[in-house]
Amino acid sequence: MTDIDAVIAWVDGNDPRHVEKRNRYREDQSVHAEATRSTRFDQSGEIYFCIASILKYAPFVRKIWIITDDQRPAMIDEFARAGLCSPDKIEIVDHKTILSGYEQYLPTFNSLVIESAMYRIPGLADRFIYFNDDFFLNRPQTAEDWFTDDGPVIRSSLLSTRASKFKTKLRAFLRRITFRPPNTKPSFARNQEAAAARFGMYDEYWAIGHHAHPVRKKTLEDYYSEHPDLLEAQFQYRFRSVFQILPVSLANHIEIVRLGVKPIDYEKPAYVKPTSEEKLPDFLEKIQTDSTLCGCIQSLDEAPRNVRRIVLSAMCEKFGATLPPKVVALFETVEPVST
């Protein structure tokens, strides 16, 4: 099997430079407030767990690429200094690199733009696993968990869009008759529905969740070469929009509809977010027993102090062997800063 890389999208939204840059564009009246919420950009060092999980559970990964906006995780070099990986294992890639030739769309604060352009990383392996910085691997993996000779291992469920489309049309009608502008609130589901629609799937789509995703660079490269208008359309939104396509979903539908890849059953990740504190015991059980492939810690910056303390402690215990000592020391505080 050919090389497999990992790609992580990361931004430090706490950085005053980044805050100032965002504020310059967030007053655009066409941008929905949900797309500019600080939690979309804030980080609490989750990326260190993401990297530690790759080092611990996916030794087959050749290289880890971190896509950033003229930034660098403060303790990223500690992994090599602690002897946990070679100095060239982790590489930073700037937005300017992946959006070369499309500089008019910089700066961007839009994860869907970054995901659309990630296949343009110079030197990226054709097969890679894409992570948000709050994703992590939860148990030992093999390359075959992500790719086989037939293509990527797509974990997905087929969902109907009929009910959601009826609601969308009804809401659009109500907005028109009350003279309100169209709804631009970002929608994870509708961005996936839009991807499916490009392949004639108007009543259903192959849904994905909050977990890492296998992608073939050539799949996106070939499709965008055929449809350069789509790439340009994706790039024009500085903040996430309901009118965009979810790039990973696009890649999945290409693989399934065009290339004949057969998806397997969706496996729920170990998942926790601030508004689901009652699900914390389930999250802890899954990470302690390695009972699911992936995990996600969503919006840790918004979690109550007690939840934050419990989650950080459990993750440090799970990944302590592949976390640099300085990072572990950082997480021993309830409110880690300067990460």
Please outline what is shown here:
By secondary structure, the chain is of the alpha/beta class. The chain contains 13 helices and twelve strands.
Count of runs of 4 or more consecutive helical residues = 13
Mean pLDDT across all residues, rounded?
Answer: 88
Integer tally of domains:
1
Largest sheet: 5 strands, mixed
Q: Just give the CATH class.
A: Alpha Beta
Number of strands: 12
Radius of gyration: 20 Å
Classify the beta-strand content into a percent band: 15-25%
Indicate the percent of residues in helices: 25-40%
CATH topology (level 3) name: Spore Coat Polysaccharide Biosynthesis Protein SpsA, Chain A
Flag low-confidence runs.
38-42
- Written as H for each helix and E for each strand, in order along the chain, the element string is EHHEHEHHEEEEEHHEEHHHEHEHH
Distance between the termini: 36 Å
What is the spatial order of strands in the main beta sheet?
A: 3-2-1-4-10
- The computed structural class is alpha/beta
Named at the architecture level, the CATH assignment is Alpha-Beta Complex
What overall form do the CA principal axes indicate? globular
Describe the overall structure.
This protein has helices at residues 16-25, 46-57, 78-81, 95-98, 111-117, 162-177, 188-197, 217-226, 228-235, 247-258, 280-289, 305-319, 325-331, and strands at residues 4-9, 61-68, 90-94, 127-132, 135-137, 147-148, 151-152, 157-160, 204-207, 213-216, 270-272, 294-297. By secondary structure, it is of the alpha/beta class. The protein has one domain: Spore Coat Polysaccharide Biosynthesis Protein SpsA, Chain A. It is globular.
